[in-house]
Design brief:
mainly alpha, flat
Length: 151
């Protein structure tokens, strides 16, 4: 009985943490949409065509970065000193393949966006993404710094 209660508690805590992580991701995504919308000054027609394409790209690159690349880089970091040449080659091949997928996703995004928004707005999108990521990182750093001060 005790094991069952403990298992249920752990399961509930896992769902709670997952839910909080999803909520945080949704908030960040909403902020990003707002930020990009403001920076690109999309017309209503452009926005209707732009967002489905961009959201599909964003989801694809998120999966690549957080599932494939993160795992590969973690494996490299944790095992760098003990890897054999053969294991190193396999990891490098996986890294190259994942980075190639990211490059291809970026290229496909640009090709699709060229049909619906101006080249200048595509450049502004890149600038807006970099600015948003920088601001997000700065906010994270400030929050982390203030949390450390409280301890």
């Amino acid at each position: 009985m005790r094991t069952l209660i403990l298992s249920l508690f752990v399961l509930c805590m896992s769902f709670s943490a997952l839910s909080q992580q999803q909520d945080r991701r949704n908030k960040i995504k909403a902020l990003k949409v707002s930020f990009i919308t403001e920076k690109l000054d999309l017309t209503e027609s452009e926005a209707q065509k732009f967002w489905p394409i961009y959201n599909a790209y964003d989801e694809k690159t998120f999966k690549l970065k957080h599932r494939e690349l993160r795992g590969i880089r973690k494996n490299i970091k944790n095992n760098a000193s003990t890897l054999t040449d053969a294991e190193s080659q396999v990891l490098l091949d996986k890294l190259i393949a994942a980075e190639k997928k990211l490059y291809e996703a970026n290229s496909q995004l640009i090709l699709k966006l060229k049909k619906i928004i101006s080249h200048k707005k595509i450049i502004l999108l890149r600038v807006a993404e970099e600015d948003f990521n920088r601001k997000l990182f700065d906010e994270y750093r400030k929050k982390r710094h203030s949390d450390e001060k409280r301890k």
